[in-house]
Amino acid sequence: MISVLAVRSGGGFGLALVFFLIVVVLIPLGLGPDQSTLALVAPGLLWLGALLACLLSLDRIFGLDYEDGSLDLLATSPLPLEAVYIAKAAAHWLTTGLPLALAAPLLGVLLNLSFDAGKAMCFSLLLGTPALSLIGAFGATLTLGVKRGGLLLSLLVLPLYVPTLIFGARAVRSASLGQAFDVPLIIVLAISLGTVAILPFASGAALRINLR
Amino acid sequence: MLQVSNLSVARGGKLLLHDVSFSVQPGQALVLRGANGVGKTSLLRCIAGLQTPTSGIILAPETVAYAAHADGLKGQLSVLENLKFWADIYGGPRPDVALNSYSLGNLAYQPAANLSAGQQRRLGLARMLVTGCRLWVLDEPTVSLDVQNVALFRKVLKAHLQGGGAAVLATHIDFELLAESLDLTNYIASVDMIFFHV
Question: In DSSP terms, which residues pair with B167 in a beta bridge?
Fold first, then answer.
């Protein structure tokens, strides 16, 4: 139901994809038509585009519920706030991370990304975007109730995105060079699993403090 | 069902209520009265578990149904979907009874965003029925309701109490039924507490 809400409320699902598409289309205009240059920078730029697209809807994860009072009601329900956080992050991933992961290999063609690198891009985003959603939702719990907290949220979250970005882009770069890319993929998966293990408790505590 | 002992409540660092004690038994409603800012909402938030009291003890059921000033409705969802959402979370009864209790049946498939303020409030109150909770904590439940719907709320509340439930309400208006039966049993600080027995 939370995913249904995320789709119906707009501003997340379509916005992130359109933003990603615009970034990918604009890159060749800025860098020029040289195919080898585009293929060289594509892994990093695609990952950066996906990361920024994920950022767009972060402040809405809990912001709307805080404003309309439903977060108070959820906090008094039998559902632990940790579960609310996981449900929200999962909805964010389903409406943002998953579509980006599926669209990235197709859009990678515009940047002369090879088929193998496109596959690696898809896998790395599938494994890495859950971490982006979980970290982003954690940041949203920290800035809950802060007016115009979007900028603060970005400042908090972007440094935490760095490891995922580094290893995600590394996997795609390795694949584009014909090298093995399983190790960076495993590290990206480990980051996602680590965030699943730790952040629900931190986010639950942050929600409890901010709702008081 | 609810036992509050020596409770002190503060908001923004300012102590509002001191040494408040009361209990609410099944079948009983407690109406909190007092001027704006006296601490009614803060006391209700403490009972609901949303705010930590400065001192004192609250013994309440693990889950209570809380209705705040804001109804917490999702405008993108229909009336029925809103109720189903909360029924699923609480594992409560099907929404049909709640819809009928507040005469929302003909609006079941309308998006909540298209409802009037009074209709939204009725939906917010109908949510209490799908929680299946025995203790209701209601903050100004009749705001935006016309006389007819206040009577509807009174009827639902009475049925809840007769079914062994209990309620704590903060309100500025008199419910005719309650007003006839209310006894002022305690007075603490600047908050009057009025009990109603079914």
Answer: B29, B136
